[in-house]
Structure prediction request, 183 residues.
Amino acid sequence: MRIIGVDPGLRHTGWGIIDIVNNKLIYVADGSISAPVSLADGNRLFFIKRTLTDLILQYKPSMSALEQIFVGAGIGSSLKLGMARGVALMVLAEAGLQTKELPPRLVKKTVTGSGSASKEQIKSMVVRLLNITPKNEDSSDALAIAISAQHIGENNMISNNVKKNKSLDIAIAKALLKEQNIK
Prediction:
C-alpha cells in the first residue's frame, strides 16, 4: 500500500509518501509545495492544486491522509489554512483516493507516544522510523500523517462513531478521541 500524507498550508503544503510492505514502513519521497508569495491567493491555490495533482500522477498512492482542521490564533490564517486544505481534499477526491482525516493529537501520539509532542520530537521520530531526514518541517509533518494513517489501519477509520474492535489500535484511537473532546 502506498500512502500520501498532506500537511496543507497556503504558504507551504507539505507532502510525504510511504509504502507499507509486509508491515514495514518504507520511505518513498517527501517535499513541500511553495507557491510564489507574489501570486494572489487564488493563483497560489491553483499552484497547489496543479502540483499536488502532478505528485499523485507521478507516485500513484493508493490512499491519502491529512490532519483535521483546527482553529489557529488568527481568523485570517485559519481561513487561508482552510482554503489550502479544501484544495488538497478536492485533489485527493478527484484522484479517487480514500482520505483519512486525523486529529493532530492522534498524529502526534501515534508517531511519538505523546499527544502534545513538539515539531522537533515528531521530526526525530520520523527520522528514526523511516531512516531518512525529511526535506523540511512541512514534509516531516506530512510523513508523520502518512505513518499515522497506516497505523490506524485501512479498515479502522477514525470517526465520531469508531467501530467496535478488540485491536489495540482502535482502543488507542478511542482514548485519543476522548482526550481530544475533553480538552
Notes: Confidence is low (pLDDT under 50) at residues 154-166.
